[in-house]
Design brief:
About 30% of the residues lie in helices and about 15% in strands. With about 280 residues, the protein is an alpha+beta fold.
Length: about 280
């Protein structure tokens, strides 16, 4: 055999060996490059688009419609009364207990208020405090059991304020008939969001507000006389003036040594009261 034949045989054997090696180690699948084709009828994008979230707009609230028994609507504060009534029944909230309310714009200003007074005055900060006490989980469990579905990740305040979700007219009326007792009659009729709930002989009814309910009282009727709080504990002093709904700022702790306004002064509606405790150093 000449050298040319030997060389040819060598290359043939080498090729066969490489072929077997490729099969053994699945080289073809490891190094193959396949061209993909778009099967969709849409054209391939020419550039990469990245969605950047912009400012989130507040969800549009469902306009309050006439609450006939066959319609759904955003309940607004009408839902707060049966929620609070249920919370009182379950012992989560005390009906005659004082709720400590902190002003969000001024955390140092606090006041005490009863749950029914918060509902009566539609006190936004008071509702926030009540929502924290009751808790989102409790409200969600209660409303779900009664057939009301809340949106995912809803806030406890929105749940109590009745915003961002809908309630069937029959469901809301049933909540009033089931949980709201005669102790809530001083709030009736209760209007919110263009609707009002009122007690009738056979239970509660919900409908459009029949007329604009404007305050007819003299604007000066909100004025009151500041009591003498000297020597009282800070809690007792807050109890004395909390029913007026005034913002109160506290300096120090212990018994009250000074106050503003002074005792027996006339206090207007928007006056901020200040209490000084024994530990306060002027």
């Amino acid at each position: 055999m000449n050298k040319q034949a030997i060389r040819k045989a060598f290359f043939v054997c080498a090729f066969i060996g490489l072929a077997y090696a490729a099969l053994a180690f699945n080289v073809q699948d490891r190094f193959s490059m396949k061209r993909t084709y778009e099967t969709s009828a849409k054209k391939a994008p020419r550039s990469l688009n990245v969605a950047v979230p912009g400012p989130q707009k507040e969800a549009l609230r469902q306009a309050p419609v006439i609450a006939g028994d066959d319609l759904s609507f955003e309940p607004s504060l009408l839902i707060a009364i049966p929620i609070v009534a249920w919370s009182i029944r379950e012992g989560i909230v005390e009906k005659d207990g004082m709720v400590l309310v902190k002003m969000t714009e001024d955390p140092s200003s606090v006041y005490l208020k009863k749950p029914l007074d918060i509902l009566k005055d539609r006190d936004k900060e008071g509702l926030r405090a009540l929502a924290r006490i009751i808790g989102r989980k409790n409200m969600e469990t209660f409303l779900t059991r009664e057939g009301v579905k809340l949106p995912d990740r809803s806030l406890s305040f929105d749940t109590l304020a009745g915003t961002g979700y809908s309630v069937h007219g029959r469901t809301l009326t049933a909540l009033y008939n089931k949980y709201v007792d005669a102790g809530f009659d001083p709030l009736m009729p209760y209007a919110s969001g263009g609707l009002e709930v009122s007690r009738k002989a056979g239970g509660f009814t919900i409908g459009k507000v029949r007329e604009e309910r404007k305050a007819q009282a003299d604007p000066d009727s909100a004025a009151w006389t500041m009591p003498d709080l000297g020597g009282l504990s800070m809690k007792a002093a807050l109890d004395r003036i909390s029913t007026k709904g005034q913002a109160v700022r506290i300096y120090g702790s212990g018994v009250v040594t000074d106050q503003y306004p002074k005792p027996r002064e006339r206090v207007e509606k928007d006056t901020r009261c200040i209490l000084y405790g024994r530990t306060y150093q002027k």
